[in-house]
Amino acid sequence: MNAASKLVIRNIGLILSGMVEKPLLDGDCLVALDGKIAGVGRERDLDVGHPDTLIDARGTALAPGLIDSHVHPVIGDYTPRQQQINWIDSCLHGGVTSMISAGEVHLPGRPKDIVGLKALAIASQRWYENFRPSGVKVHAGAPVIEDGMEEQDFKDLAEAGVKLLGEVGLGSVKAGDKAKQMVAWARKYGIQSTIHTGGPSIPGSGLIDKDVVLEADADIIGHINGGHTALPDDQITCLCEQCRRGIEIVHNGNERAGLLAMRTAFELKQPERVILGTDSPAGSGVQPLGILRMIAMLSSLGNVPAETVICFATGNTARMRGLDCGLIEAGRSADFALIDRAQHAPGKDMLASIAQGNLPGVGMTVIDGLVRSQRSRNTPPAEKVPELVKAPAAAGGGGH
Length: 400
Ligand SMILES: [Zn+2]
Known about the structure:
This protein is an alpha/beta fold. It has helices at 87-92, 114-130, 151-159, 176-188, 210-216, 233-242, 255-267, 290-302, 306-312, 315-321, 350-355; strands at 6-10, 14-16, 24-25, 29-33, 36-41, 53-56, 61-64, 66-71, 78-79, 84-85, 96-101, 137-139, 194-195, 220-221, 246-250, 274-277, 336-340, 361-367, 370-373, 387-390. The chain folds into two domains: 6-64 and 327-390, Roll (Urease, subunit C, domain 1); 66-288, Metal-dependent hydrolases (TIM Barrel).
């Protein structure tokens, strides 16, 4: 590995912190060392000398890289669900720098016996740890729990490096009491859990209603707005009110129900619980701009400032999921999206254009302090685009 590498981003027009309690930060400059944020604020107050990578943000906004809290990857940058390649690279062009698997359920011939599902989870965790498509961090290896699993199985999984459960309810465990026991075993060994909420997603999956969700007590109320079919409104508000778990709203769900869940979180004064995902690949396809679309939808139809909604897809998720990215503060991973108002979008500035329902344009992404993409091939073109003034001399090609 190289000696300490330094990244400087100057002329930042707006800093989006990812912190829902304070979504905007003062400053125009950020310095990162060895892929971690070292300082943020005014350029005159920071040590900006001798960078290996220098970015002139040209007045664009710096946000933490977006986190998709709910994806269904299988292997590499290929999904069998819709027979697409390079879908993760396409999401990077939508500003997504981290993804969290809710189960590698689309693997053809997915093993459902216990030793087989454990082997798959361990292998998935490894292959995404060893290979990051276009630099995107894919947190995968999320087993779908099945009847007959015992405490030792969760201990084995944790010891082998598995940190997530796939959506509870996609396997044979659909009853609240059984799910509760297994979620508790997972938690005991440090494995995070999420649960499918709502009607069946595809033939073969089943209904998980609010009573099962509350009894199972998984860490995340997975797609509270359905994946695709939502629960009745009174069950959604009840889920928000009767537990303190994460309220995950997904693109491939019911948009009206998503707005209801978000509004309920605000009524409860618990906006820090709201996190965003796409639940893609799925029957609805792959949405490279899905997280940006969620941000624009929730901000515009829900009348929530864009800078706050962006926190749902960054800091909220990072805090809830224990990730080291998602917030602009010293020590965090230098994972960013540089964005600006789309060309010809209405609204006095980028935040106003998002609040009117328009997507911003992505001009650059950075992961671990390295530039991974420049002007997005997928978003509407941004008015202003950052310039990569200096890049490391012998870059290893990125993507590793
Ligand atoms: Zn689901």
